[in-house]
Amino acid sequence: MPAWIEHAVWWHVFPLGFVGAEPEAAPGAPIAHRLSHLHAWLDYAVELGVSGLALGPIFAASTHGYDTTDHFRIDPRLGDEADFDSLVEAARARGLRILLDGVFNHVGRAHPAFQEVLQRGPQADRASWFRLSWPRGTAPGTEPDYACFEGHRQLVTLNHDEPEVADHVSSVMNHWLARGADGWRLDAAYAVPRPFWANVLPRVRAAHPDAFIVGEVIHGDYAGIVRDTGMDAVTQYELWKAIWSALNDRNLFELAHALERHNSYLAAFVPLTFVGNHDVTRIASRLRDERHLPHALAILFTCGGTPSIYAGDEQAFRGLKEERVGGDNAIRPTFPPTPGSLAPYGWSTYRLHQSLIALRRRHPWLLRTRTRKIHLTNEQLVLAMADGHQRVLLALNLADEPAVLPAPGAHLIEIGECDLGAGGEGAEQVSLRPHGWAILSG
Q: Were 111 and a residue from 46, 53, 107, 242 both cysteine, which residue would form a disulfide, CB within 3.0 to 4.6 Å?
């Protein structure tokens, strides 16, 4: 893992939605230079406290960006290569890193390599890039059966056993790293055979040893995938689910169990942690009780991992993910021209994010910290995080009544509303109001 990731906090942006791009690319349409829309938000991101932009797909595609048609071209709905260079320069001027979204499990049907297959059949120069069969004959123009991503016929799975595919992916990753990107999120990394990444990533690191590479992995053997592929990290969906589920069910035992598993992952690598992204219902909509949004954020920013904030979550945006055509629209909205046009009610959540990110800056060792239970019931939890020299406590109360909880060694209230004092035997205690929370240090 590159040294600079030690202090990284990402602001995750879905560009096609953010800039208000058309849902479908129109062949031959003029280039729309919309990436510059992000420039007006860079200072906002810096003031939030993040250190980098994690961009969703920006390469030429037919619709949502995950049906790539040209990995070497910026999507014309966003702009061109000069617009990318300008964004990198503007980000660099503010100390912001850039993480790109690499879709290398599949391509869109309109990708030239697959279009050539449709036109020329098995004789196509890049037919070996795909897993194809022609049960109805091989005459030119006969469409083959082909492997696709999770049943989506528009997403044609690449043949990862083909050396040319590995060469192509290596070239793409190195090209954009050389152009100014700092790393890659590997989309659907879980669907790609591990030996493919073990082949490709050393080539990337040979040219760009300081690149950060994180794989999208929903479930499975997180540590094994990191070990076998050479990725720096994977996405921590287990913890994401446990955070909102435990808060909704008022079952903090679920969260405690997930954090024990999280501890085991931290022994092997540093996961990418989050409470929202471009594929899931907004955390402000997911939680049944809006009073527990600060609890979710406090967990995110005190447990080990590299935190990522999905753009808009820091303003308590709402939006439901739906399993239908257009079901992502609500969670991938267009942002106004400048932050000054945001609604006033979200700024208190923004300020809370600022405070929690500042906590991470004061305690950078939290990146790799393990959590230890001090107190646990269905509705109350006290966790301790320490690095041998410093110690942070997180106290949560989900109940409708106040709670007095143990806070051993705590002497300072970092964030939250609480009273800190001594119990009957002199041990430190923290008093939380109903649905209260606090982060303490000692």
A: 107
